[in-house]
# Entry
Amino acid sequence: MQQAAVLPLDPSIVETLKGVTTATLTTVLLKKGLRNVWMRGTRPLRPEQPRVVGRAFTLRFVPAREDLATPASWGAPISTRAAIEAMPEGVIAVVDAMGVTDAGIFGDILCARMARRGVAALVTDGVVRDLSGVLGTGLPVWCQGTAAPASVAGLTFVNWQEPVGCGGVAVFPNDVVVVDTDGAVLIPAAMLDEVMAAAVEQERLEGWIMSQVEAGTPLPGLYPPNEANKAKYEAWKRDAA
# Structure
């Protein structure tokens, strides 16, 4: 099967989006008509993991079939091992595990290889195995937890770099993923520039609103701002420029 090529992501975009929370992104995307962008079950494996931004590099599992989901399949041309070797630096591996939580998709060795290749993070609606070893690799992971059994106990790996569903969200190769303590949010590749601009402005506005709250301003008319508070905000922006 043909896999989609990985597009580069400008480092300036990565740095800008590292300053935007996933909560803000969901608000911006909601205003643009996209409600289903937060991947369910993507929780940080380590609480202090930093916000990560990267292109989605997708992997897809289907239900286990005994003639295909075998330890021998780990050495096949279409395998998780081969997919990892195709991952360029800076991508976020987004793995569709169908929400299965009793078979770990990756363990410490695979995560160590991903870390060595410079993969930015692993995001999945499934689970990992070898918890202490995975934590030791330093690879940031967002998932539903851990399980001892290997992936083939419940899943069959079928391909990488094709559209997947992760946590109920449609993820296409080269979409942009931002992940923090609230989980993983998808930005469609074609909407990246407009979403990024709106998100930066939303963060600035909410920062100003928070300063007003801390100064004792009541919420009605402030959040969301009425015309008077919009004028105050615009004046504040001009003064801050």
